[in-house]
């Protein structure tokens, strides 16, 4: 009887499963539901805690970045961190990238002024010698062309080594300095913006942001009302301070990304113009008529692959300038300030150097 009574009581406890009662029947189900609720509510907290505890490679340098306005003796103002990023960028570029750029341009000028004229004379004098030698040895025309190209490359290599303007170091060294510096500063700024400081870099307003006129009028009216009630000084300034988008936020005004795109495009066009003026020895200017014709009477035109590569690189950089606008529109405004500062430095640097090169240009001899 005791067993039957116990079984009957167990059955009665199970009856709410078929009724409209919301009370759970089995304690395991209730525990599972509570566990899911606890897990779902604890996930954001755990995620935030793990993000806060995640170490960053450049985190030890963040305090130095935060103290940059004091190091530069900038007055306390609404945009002291943005101004410190701008001035710090120009100081870094002047200290590290400007000497390399001057070194690169000197090598390029030696290529144009010293190697160029001698290379043109070699191209005019060497083919008849190789042709005469090939005829004496009975070589076919294809072998003559191959021997000529080998000798031309050897002579060009000798000239560039003699005047210390070998093309590969001239191209590689500036990249080896500029790219790591750009990436390192970008990562440092990103780390500083991720590690939110309520009174530091990440809380400063975007420098080019301005409140709407209607909102500004409301703030002014509120300030007058509070002043009339006896609130003044620092308390009034704190109560009426307008908080807009910060350097940690994405720039929704698009002024920064668009300005960056314009600066980058201007740098590309200026660089292409300078390359046309400071170009090393080439076989021709894109296309050169040979005076020969095919069997069907069409004229044979030689294509300068070097000029075509320059044109391809220029078009690629133009496309990248547009892509960079889209990338910067999704980046924190603090990074956009740095990128815009670096692009403006490059534009000013190349303009000044172009003027200097034109004023001091030597006639090739």
Automatic annotation (TrEMBL):
Q: Where in the cell is it found?
A: Membrane
Q: Which domain of life is it from?
A: Eukaryota
User: Which parts of the chain span the membrane according to its record?
Assistant: 81-103, 319-340
The Gene Ontology CC terms held by the record are: mitochondrial inner membrane
Per the record, membrane topology reads:
Multi-pass membrane protein
Q: Which Pfam families match?
A: 60KD_IMP
Domain (Membrane insertase YidC/Oxa/ALB C-terminal): give its ranges: 81-353
Q: Which GO terms describe its biological process?
A: mitochondrial respiratory chain complex IV assembly; protein insertion into mitochondrial inner membrane from matrix
Per the record's keyword annotation, is Transmembrane helix included, yes or no?
A: yes
Under the GO molecular function aspect, what terms does this record hold?
membrane insertase activity
Q: What keywords tag this UniProt record?
A: Membrane, Transmembrane, Transmembrane helix
Q: Which family does it belong to?
A: Belongs to the OXA1/ALB3/YidC family.
Designated name of the protein? Membrane insertase YidC/Oxa/ALB C-terminal domain-containing protein
């Amino acid at each position: 009887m005791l067993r039957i009574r116990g079984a009957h009581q167990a059955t009665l406890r199970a009856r709410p499963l078929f009724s409209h009662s919301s009370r759970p029947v089995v304690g395991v189900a209730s525990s599972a539901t509570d566990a899911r609720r606890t897990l779902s509510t604890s996930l954001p907290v755990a995620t935030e805690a793990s993000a806060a505890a995640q170490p960053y490679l450049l985190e030890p340098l963040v305090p130095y970045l935060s103290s940059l306005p004091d190091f530069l003796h900038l007055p306390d103002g609404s945009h002291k961190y943005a101004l410190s990023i701008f001035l710090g960028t120009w100081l870094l570029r002047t200290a590290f990238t400007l000497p390399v750029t001057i070194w690169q341009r000197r090598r390029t000028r030696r290529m144009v002024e010293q190697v160029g004229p001698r290379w043109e004379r070699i191209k005019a004098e060497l083919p008849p010698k190789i042709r005469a030698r090939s005829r004496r040895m009975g070589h076919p025309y294809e072998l003559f062309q191959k021997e000529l190209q080998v000798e031309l490359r050897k002579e060009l290599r000798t000239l560039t080594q003699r005047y210390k303007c070998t093309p590969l170091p001239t191209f590689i060294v500036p990249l080896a300095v500029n790219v790591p510096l750009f990436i390192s500063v970008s990562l440092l700024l990103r780390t500083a913006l991720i590690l939110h400081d309520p009174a530091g870099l990440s809380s400063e307003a975007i420098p080019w942001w301005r409140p709407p006129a209607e909102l500004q009028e409301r703030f002014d009216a509120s300030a007058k009302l509070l002043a009339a009630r006896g609130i003044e000084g620092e308390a009034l300034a704190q109560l009426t301070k307008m908080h807009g988008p910060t350097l940690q936020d994405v720039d929704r005004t698009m002024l920064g990304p668009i300005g960056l795109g314009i600066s980058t495009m201007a740098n590309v066009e200026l660089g292409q113009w300078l390359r046309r003026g400071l170009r090393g020895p080439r076989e021709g200017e894109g296309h050169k008529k040979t005076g020969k014709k095919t069997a069907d009477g069409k004229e044979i035109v030689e294509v300068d692959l070097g000029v075509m590569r320059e044109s391809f690189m220029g078009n690629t950089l133009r496309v990248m300038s547009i892509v960079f606008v889209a990338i910067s529109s999704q980046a924190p405004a603090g990074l956009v300030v740095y990128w815009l500062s670096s692009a403006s430095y490059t534009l000013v640097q190349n303009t000044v150097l172009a003027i200097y090169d034109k004023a001091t240009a030597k006639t090739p001899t």
